[in-house]
DNA sequence: CGCTTGACCGGAA
DNA sequence: ATTCCGGCCAAGC
């Protein structure tokens, strides 16, 4: 059986992914959710909900995980209490913030041999 | 065991 | 640009 994919399992995967994120790079919750090899949900729809699980995982992420490199699909930091702090950390890593926003595809990091770059074109 | 909240996403008003 | 709504799942109370 298998199973399981308990929260521990999923969280581990999320943390593992985030830990691989190099400096100056960022990943979105949805990106992680879609990249994970064994998502909790089969595929009823999209990774929309899975992204939320990623957020939960981040909430419990240990100090080994650069949670500050994880941002939302909007190219901005999440609505967390230390959002400003996260911004500092990110810009300190060489990220170019524009209006509190960054070029997602520009700094988006993707794991090699997993998925292809989203190549999402921004629409102002 | 049930309701509320959440570090989300995407689309529509 | 902002605000609201629906969706999906898990953790917390």
Report on the structure:
The protein is mainly alpha-helical and 124 residues long. The protein has one domain: Winged helix-like DNA-binding domain superfamily/Winged helix DNA-binding domain (Arc Repressor Mutant, subunit A, Orthogonal Bundle), CATH 1.10.10. The chain is 38% helix and 6% strand. It is built from five helices and four strands. The strands form two sheets. A two-stranded parallel sheet has the order 1-2. Strand 3 and strand 4 form a beta hairpin. Helix 1 crosses helix 3 and helix 2 crosses helix 3. The longest helix is centred in the N-terminal third of the chain and has 14 residues. The protein is globular and about 40 Å long. The N and C termini lie far apart (47 Å). 29% of the residues are buried. The protein binds a DNA duplex (13 and 13 nucleotides) through helix 2, helix 3 and strand 2.
Q: What name goes with the CATH superfamily?
A: Winged helix-like DNA-binding domain superfamily/Winged helix DNA-binding domain
CATH top level assignment: Mainly Alpha
Q: Based on DSSP secondary structure assignment, what is the total number of beta strands?
A: 4
CATH topology, which one? Arc Repressor Mutant, subunit A
Secondary structure blueprint with pairings:
Elements: H1 7-20, E1 27-28, H2 29-35, H3 48-59, E2 70-71, H4 83-92, E3 97-98, E4 101-102, H5 104-107
Parallel strand pairs: 1-2
Antiparallel strand pairs: 3-4
Helix pairs in contact: 1-3, 2-3
This protein binds a DNA duplex (13 and 13 nucleotides) through helix 2, helix 3 and strand 2.
Give a short synopsis of this structure.
With 124 residues, this protein is mainly α. It has a single domain, classed as Arc Repressor Mutant, subunit A, CATH 1.10.10.10.
